[in-house]
């Protein structure tokens, strides 16, 4: 396994090496520094490297233990106290740069406002590590890894300018800080390939900031963990929260939230309070998701699977729980909800006084958006070095088993053999829309999952043998979709480094076999527990047809958008007419259709052949048919 991209805890070394060891300032250097309007409480407290030059240090005051490496430029820094300034750093127009207190971990109160779920954020901690703290009930799980260094650190090639105050902050290499109001008690990770940037008007307190993060435009952050390549700007207010990698937040309020990677929230009229959002989510304008006024005490919360999309001006009453890929239509939902159906649409029908749920809505009527989500989240992953590999596919182990249970429940309900669970804390009716169509859609989703995981690329006897294995249990741990066995191993890790190595085994070759085993368990369910070669062949054909139908819907939906008469007749700005196949997502869909159609042709040709064979050769013909069906 290649761990070259695994993050390492930044080394805060005060020893520049034997070839360039520390020394005190000479009398001539002190004299020149004074001439350049510099001062110090005690010049003997300042250590420099052998190649140190005083030429670019002007209008600064030094206090406490200060260490300066070569080629450093400092101007108009009113106070520098207890800091190690690394080579090639550029500091200018800073009110104060002081380090008086070592605080390695920052306590966070997540998911709920009453402090029940806590984690102590430390450098290099990712979303899976935060989840581990909450899961084990041990907030200080990784706090023991604090460094022994008791001095602030400015990394190599850092640029810090026009900042009012920096207190007790470790700033890693290549960081860029410009125009900030205040940064206090923080650890900022950065690198040459993924520099952290903190811009105009930002206030940052008690925070861990990861590589590639961009904080700008009056953002306020307190008691937060900010993941890799996260953007927070436009006056956003984020507190007591952990924000996963590749998330973008602007102009809104987020508090006491644990957010997995790839979260989008861009509108100043929205807020998200006391929530556990499992990533790849989008909070629309006007959405008010908070616990402040929904209970007698602020001890309720929201839990939403990945792909959560509350619509414009939607208001929820806590506590709430939603299955993955829930789309909520615009409206006020006056009572708490618990929606078990994945890929569903929720609507508050005020006219008829009922709650309406359409299971599998995304699959049936929103295929283009579903495929676009997969594409865009992969495309927006700008991380270069990382410690976790998260799941982008809508049909993955964490969602497909919910789909399976949804299919089972609706099938039994339609047959009168099961009651639906209570989905709203009220006595008003709940309508399940298009129940038969949803059952068929859930079946298609399972077939496409089995096809995508490559199960049909194996011989029938292999799948029959695997069908006897125990069904795997899965957990979405901060964006990492892991088996229960893997998760147990991670929980037993004794350090962040060991935990991250185990997390990256998610992409190991052996994990493909685990996915195959999981796909076979879904295949066994579709076969009603009796997996035979003939069943497998028929399901393979059905899966290919379902996959083709899905991609055809993707193209049809986009074609419908582009052919709108209102879109094409705008008098102010006439659109250049576009074709659906100009869209990269539709191009990908078309390629998949062609591949699946070739598989269908191969299987039909061989099926005609196999019908001419004698009964003694039927088993062999099934194997040949299988091989040709799965060739593409």
Describe this structure in words.
With 632 residues, the protein is of the alpha/beta class. The protein contains 14 helices and 36 strands. The strands form 4 sheets. It has a 27-stranded mixed sheet that branches. α4 packs across α11, α8 runs antiparallel to α9 and α11 packs parallel to α14. It is elongated and about 90 Å long.
Keywords:
632 residues; single chain; 27-stranded mixed β-sheet; disordered C terminus; five-stranded mixed β-sheet; alpha/beta; 30% helix
Mean pLDDT: 88
The rough form would be described as: elongated
Rg of Cα set:
29 Å
Summarize the amount of helix as a percent range: 25-40%
Task: Extract low-pLDDT stretches.
Answer: 1-14, 605-632
How many strands appear in the DSSP assignment? 36
Structure summary:
The protein is 30% helix and 25% strand. It is α/β, with parallel strands linked by helices. 45% of the residues are buried.
Layout: helices, strands, pairs:
Elements: E1 22-24, H1 27-35, E2 39-40, E3 46-49, E4 57-63, E5 66-68, E6 73-81, E7 83-85, E8 90-98, E9 106-109, E10 118-121, H2 127-136, E11 152-154, E12 159-171, E13 176-178, E14 182-188, E15 197-198, E16 203-209, E17 214-215, E18 220-226, E19 231-233, E20 237-243, E21 248-250, E22 253-259, E23 263-265, E24 271-277, E25 281-283, E26 288-289, E27 302-304, E28 309-310, E29 320-322, E30 327-328, E31 338-339, E32 345-349, E33 354-358, H3 361-365, H4 367-379, H5 397-414, E34 430-432, H6 435-452, H7 460-466, E35 474-477, E36 480-483, H8 484-491, H9 496-504, H10 509-526, H11 533-562, H12 565-568, H13 584-610, H14 618-629
Parallel strand pairs: 2-4, 3-5, 4-6, 5-7, 6-8, 7-11, 8-12, 11-12, 12-13, 12-14, 13-15, 14-16, 15-17, 16-18, 17-19, 18-20, 19-21, 20-22, 21-23, 22-24, 23-25, 24-26, 24-27, 27-29, 28-30, 29-31, 30-32, 33-34
Antiparallel strand pairs: 1-3, 9-10, 32-33, 35-36
């Amino acid at each position: 396994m290649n761990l070259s991209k695994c993050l390492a805890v930044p080394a805060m070394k005060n020893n520049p090496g034997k070839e360039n060891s520390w020394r005190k300032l000479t009398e001539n250097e002190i004299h020149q520094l004074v001439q350049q309007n510099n001062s110090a409480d005690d010049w003997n407290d300042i250590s420099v490297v052998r190649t140190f030059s005083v030429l670019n240090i002007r209008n600064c005051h030094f206090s406490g233990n200060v260490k300066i490496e070569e080629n450093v430029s400092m101007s108009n820094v009113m106070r520098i106290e207890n800091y190690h300034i690394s080579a090639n750093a550029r500091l200018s127009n800073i009110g104060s740069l002081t380090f008086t207190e070592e605080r390695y971990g920052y306590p966070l109160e997540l998911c709920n406002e009453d402090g029940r779920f806590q984690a102590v954020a430390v450098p290099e901690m990712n979303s899976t590590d935060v989840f581990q703290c909450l899961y084990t009930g041990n907030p200080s799980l990784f706090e023991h890894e604090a460094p022994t260094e008791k001095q602030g650190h400015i990394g190599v090639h850092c640029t810090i300018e026009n900042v009012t105050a920096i207190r007790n902050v470790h700033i890693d290499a290549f960081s860029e800080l410009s125009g900030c109001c205040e940064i206090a008690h923080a650890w900022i990770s950065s690198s040459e390939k993924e520099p952290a940037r903190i811009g105009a008007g930002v206030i940052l307190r008690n925070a861990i900031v990861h590589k590639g993060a961009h904080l700008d435009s009056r953002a306020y952050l307190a008691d937060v963990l900010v993941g890799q390549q996260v953007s927070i700007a436009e006056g956003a207010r984020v507190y007591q929260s952990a924000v996963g990698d590749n998330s973008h937040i602007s102009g809104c309020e987020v508090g006491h939230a644990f957010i997995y990677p790839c979260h989008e929230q861009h509108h100043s009229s929205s807020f998200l309070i006391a929530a556990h959002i499992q990533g790849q989510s989008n909070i629309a304008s006007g959405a008010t998701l908070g616990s402040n006024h929904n209970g007698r005490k602020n001890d309720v919360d929201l839990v939403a699977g990945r792909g959560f999309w509350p619509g414009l001006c939607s208001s929820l009453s806590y506590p709430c729980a939603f299955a993955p890929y829930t789309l909520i239509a615009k409206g006020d939902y006056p009572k708490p909800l618990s929606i078990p159906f994945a890929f569903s649409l929720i609507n508050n029908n005020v006219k008829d006084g009922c709650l309406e749920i359409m299971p599998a809505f995304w699959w049936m009527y929103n295929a283009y958006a579903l495929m676009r989500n997969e594409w865009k989240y992969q495309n927006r992953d700008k991380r270069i070095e990382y410690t976790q590999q998260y799941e982008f596919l809508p049909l993955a182990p964490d969602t497909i088993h919910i789909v399976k249970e949804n299919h089972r429940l609706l099938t039994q309900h339609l047959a009168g053999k099961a009651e639906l669970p209570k989905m709203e804390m009220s006595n008003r009716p709940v309508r399940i829309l298009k129940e038969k169509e949803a059952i068929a859609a859930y079946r298609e989703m399972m077939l496409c999952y089995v096809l995508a995981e490559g199960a049909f690329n194996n011989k029938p006897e292999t799948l029959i043998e695997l069908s006897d294995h125990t069904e795997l249990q899965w957990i979405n741990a901060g964006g990492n979709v892991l088996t229960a066995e893997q998760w147990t191993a991670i929980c037993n890790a004794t350090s962040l480094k060991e935990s991250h190595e185990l997390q990256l085994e998610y992409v190991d070759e052996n994990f493909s076999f685990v996915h195959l085993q999981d796909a076979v368990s879904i295949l066994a369910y579709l076969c009603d527990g009796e997996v035979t070669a003939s069943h497998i062949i028929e399901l393979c054909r059905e899966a290919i047809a379902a996959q083709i139908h899905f991609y055809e819907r993707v193209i049809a939906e986009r074609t419908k958008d582009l052919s709108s008469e209102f879109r094409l007749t705008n008098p102010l700005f006439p659109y250049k007419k576009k074709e659906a196949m100009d869209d990269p997502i539709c191009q990908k869909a078309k390629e998949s259709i062609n591949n699946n159609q070739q598989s269908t042709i191969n299987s039909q040709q061989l099926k005609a052949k196999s019908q001419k064979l004698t009964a003694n050769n039927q088993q062999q013909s099934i194997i040949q048919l299988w091989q040709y069906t799965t060739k593409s």
